[in-house]
Amino acid sequence: MSVLAATMLLFAAEGPVMIVSAPDAQYDIGYEELAAGQDRAALEAIENCRSLPADDPARQINHAIALARLGEYDAARQSFAAAARNADRLELETATGNWIDSRVLARRGLAMLDDGQFADYEALAVR
In the chain, how many domains are there? Predict the structure, then answer.
């Protein structure tokens, strides 16, 4: 398992809803807060995380999710785009136990923004 994160990918009726989680409690990238629907608290936790660099793909994906859920779509797009072009390419674990490339997840997030899926998100969270 990567030092980083396990990513859960849930499928809503209209498309995927992604979730990124860190297996170790020392990595607080907003999962608990996002899971509880506390998007502002999640954003604060992600931005104040000292255990992972700001350019960590899992952190970037969670950051984008929190921003998108708060309606800050331009900033979310920037964070998803940064994860999509990140030199660090990680395999992240999905909720179903599948492993998905971080760039693929980031591109899915961008597609979700394009489709307006964050306006009415379902079960989007990060560990």
Answer: 1
